[in-house]
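Subject: complex prediction, re-run

Hi both,

The earlier run crashed halfway through, so I resubmitted it with identical inputs.
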Amino acid sequence: MKMPGKEDLGLSLSLSFPQIHHSLQLNLKPPIDPSPANSCFSSGLTLSKPSWNDSSSPSDHNSDAFRAQSGSLRGIDMNILPSTVVCEEEAGVSSPNSTISSVSGKKSERESNGDDFEIEKAYSRGISEEEDGDTSRKKLRLSKDQSAILEESFKEHSTLNPRQKLALAKQLGLRPRQVEVWFQNRRARTKLKQTEVDCEFLKRCCENLTEENRRLLKEVQELRALKLSTTQFFMQMAPPTTLTMCTSCERVAVPRNPPSTTVDPRSPYLAKNHDRPIPFNLWPPAATIVAHRPSDTLRPQP
DNA sequence: CGCTGTCAATGGATTACATCA
DNA sequence: TATGATGTAATCCATTGACAG
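This time it finished cleanly. Structure:
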């Protein structure tokens, strides 16, 4: 019974941008059903933990797949348990909260549990009698059939409740603790694989974003260059000048040193010898066109 | 024969829940 | 009745050790 813990804090990462149609969610929960139906990368990344911790009947494990015969191990047939083990496990099936179900948990608690500790001791005796009495930890590899059956079960449910664990253990001729450990390690492997896939995906996202950023920067530079050349073009077409208008006759006054080509001094619209010329500017306010450019110094001042 | 990868197993930590004072 | 302390069960995680290639 895994409770919402530190992994359920909702640590998520969302990436969305127009050209990469991904919405990435890294929900770092303990995963992970490895079945294609739950593959998270087809539509983003969403790792979800299947809920299989209810007390539903372990009938799934009574299917034909679970009736497959388990084979013997190399050297040691670890599928053969002391007969008392099976009897005690059968007794435990009826109550998920019985002593049998407490095979899981802290080692000290497991060992302090009488029945299960006896199971472990009986199993250890069986091994040691067949071996040379070495008490060190032996590698007891599961058979291919056992692994296949466990794998099939894992595809359906990545976690086991006590009853299912016991049923599967009985089916495979393993100790419940072994089934538990197998699922635990299997979840770890799945999570590791998923992490690798996530990293690869994020790496690709990063590369795409870097490329996009590079492209946008280049585009900005091009637009700035285009804007600068356009401004300079218009400034050449209409050189800056300052004209004055007579307030009384409302004619443009002749500058004392008129620019060569601005206004014809003989124009009837030009006022002569008026005292209070009002300057006006043909150019719009400078700030509305270009700001902070060296060419601004060429702009006529109001 | 040493190296490396795989995998079962271990020990510690964490969490939720139940019980009790 | 509310609350904090304690125990229990389940799980995760890092690591260990055996073993095969």
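Strands of chain A lie at 243-246, 252-253, 270-271, 277-280.

- K.
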